[in-house]
Design brief:
two-stranded antiparallel sheet, mainly beta, 64 residues, single chain, flat
Length: 64
């Protein structure tokens, strides 16, 4: 299947090279999913500290 970016998709252009295209039909219409390969770029440095919430409710448990 060949792909041609003939128009923007909901205001966004597809970046990179399309590698997988999936077409799906459902009761309310057709849907397309496009996976693209592109070069990774370095992100800007953020704050020095960050927090991660893992949903841990008990940090440590003792059998005493």
């Amino acid at each position: 299947m060949r792909y041609r970016a003939s128009r923007p998709i909901e205001g966004r252009l597809i970046e990179g090279r399309p590698i997988t295209v999936t077409l799906r039909t459902e009761a309310d219409g057709w849907y397309v999913s496009i996976a693209c390969a592109f070069e990774a770029t370095a992100l800007e440095r953020g704050p020095k500290a960050c927090g991660i919430d893992r949903g841990v409710t008990t940090l440590a448990a003792s059998n005493r």
